[in-house]
């Protein structure tokens, strides 16, 4: 497993974490994070991060999305379509990536060919956050136009617009998709899907920076303080709280592996920490390990090498964002997306096991498209044959 985190200092950090075998007499398994790579691909601070079973993608204030192949440990290129800070990124299984930005656009990307399938003008202001329903058929987005919007992803159109009193900065579906939450400053409105109305409101002590569902009814909340709280979204009560860091917690992420339910926290104090959750959420989690990046962290993810993706059984790409042949041609001409060519790995100029360190920045409006290494090699072989003749 790999802990990945972005920071204000424009760097993406990677730490591989391996549980050590239990020694005789040990009650708890020891986990040790080891520095794997640091990669400086962006020219401004990192603002968003998403992970699937193959790739890590990062969004930045430099208006680009960078793709990292975690299997090969290489920079896979960059996507340029948005005009504004990338505010949110989310994978849907291994087939699609959805991005939102300050230009008000939501873009749907083919995560195999890295083509822009759809570009939707979603909000009059910035898109501040988006969340895909577990079924893959719906998405929610919030923006600075004081609206909460529901999107029909099968047809690629707006399904419902709800006006809200203030600008929301987080929206999140529950694991089963029976409810969703909308965050405005330090308040969390809990909505039920069947009624699309607020069933209750949770108030945190400080402005909320990140949330993650630990179960259908339990929500972990991090804010502009050192404390993380677990709330019950049914009873609207705080189950427990614990001091996680020495400074404000910027992002929080949860995942399950055999025998362990884990949450990871990242803070402005530079630390990434892994915590083991106890079944009774009224009891604070125990610290598994921590690592100091010495940077001001902004976003976080966990890449699992052999991830079991719960979304893999969902409709294939053709059913989810249908694009006609004519649309596909026009998208390729007009989308403005760019993916850089993979760089040769003969002399990487970062750490031994790191990603490639220097990447040629794509320019907006360029028509450069990703060229696989094998295609380049094939062309080279053809040229050599011609020369021989």
From TrEMBL:
Gene3D superfamilies xref list: YVTN repeat-like/Quinoprotein amine dehydrogenase
GO biological process: negative regulation of signal transduction; ribosome biogenesis
Biased composition (Basic and acidic residues): 326-346
Coiled-coil blocks: none
WD repeat locations: 79-119, 120-161, 258-277
Assembly mode: Interacts with PAK1.
Designated name of the protein: p21-activated protein kinase-interacting protein 1
Annotated organism of origin: Pteropus vampyrus
Lineage: Eukaryota, Metazoa, Chordata, Craniata, Vertebrata
Gene name of the encoded protein: PAK1IP1
